[in-house]
């Protein structure tokens, strides 16, 4: 049976959280706000606008629209400088193995990411041709935990939501997948991602047999 496999990008295919951290930290410090790794964790899966809103609230700062837009642009400029240096060596372990397995079995493969930089990153790591549909931060009006991004991906693959499987590293993404009536697979810490149908530390723990079971279901 043809199923739809929808991948989040940041934290699932590549570890860009470290670059988001550097860019947000620089920005936060520039306006006198402290920024820790714990705070960065809370921004996983969260859109750029929502992330800046959170940082400002942590620092008790209010800005006018122009200042807000300026900081958003600055953060992304900085982030893109890190992305610029990315290559295929930054693909997380066994992601290519799983993608190739799905490709061989003629399964639908889509990207469902909150990032507006998703295409650039997929190009940098040479994975863009593996995805027959890319739904990113430019293609949604409501961010995760809203299911919109995954429902749009299912639609683009022409596969019913209940026949889709989502790989996610963020709680907001697992909630979105569950709300979309899809099978949710958490990649990361099981205690954090306890709402997922399945959790694996990373793709090295996902066997071909497990994938076959999902396809047969
Ligand atoms: C992903 C990341 C978030 C990031 C968001 C928007 O969900 O996990 O940390 O804020 O994408 O990314 P962008 O590249 O558009 O700033
Ligand atoms: Mg993610």
Ligand list:
6-O-phosphono-alpha-D-glucopyranose, magnesium ion
Q: Residue ranges: pLDDT <50 for 5 or more in a row?
A: none
Task: Summarize model confidence as the mean pLDDT.
Answer: 97
Written as H for each helix and E for each strand, in order along the chain, the element string is EHHHHHEHEHEHEEH
Number of helices: 9
Q: What helical percentage do the residues reach?
A: 40-55%
> What is the C-alpha radius of gyration, as a whole number of Å?
17 Å
The structure class reads alpha/beta
Total strand count, please? 6
Oligomer: single chain
Shape, per Cα inertia axes: globular
InterPro entries: B-phosphoglucomutase_hydrolase, Beta-PGM, HAD-like_sf, HAD-like_SPP, HAD-SF_hydro_IA, HAD_sf, PGP-like_dom2
Family: Belongs to the HAD-like hydrolase superfamily. CbbY/CbbZ/Gph/YieH family.
Protein name: Beta-phosphoglucomutase
Task: Give a nutshell description of this structure.
The protein has 217 residues and is an alpha/beta fold. It has helices at 17-30, 37-41, 48-58, 65-83, 95-104, 118-124, 148-157, 171-179, 208-216, and strands spanning 4-7, 108-112, 133-135, 164-168, 183-187, 198-200. The N and C termini lie close together (8 Å).
Overview of this structure, please?
- With 217 residues, this protein is α/β, with parallel strands linked by helices.
- The protein is 43% helix and 12% strand.
- It has helices spanning 17-30, 37-41, 48-58, 65-83, 95-104, 118-124, 148-157, 171-179, 208-216, and strands at residues 4-7, 108-112, 133-135, 164-168, 183-187, 198-200.
- It has a six-stranded parallel β-sheet with strand order 3-2-1-4-5-6, sandwiched between helices.
- Helix 6 links the parallel strand 2 (108-112) and strand 3 (133-135).
- The model has no long low-confidence stretch (mean pLDDT 97).
- 6-O-phosphono-alpha-D-glucopyranose (G6P) binds next to helix 3.
- The site of 6-O-phosphono-alpha-D-glucopyranose has 16 residues, from helix 3.
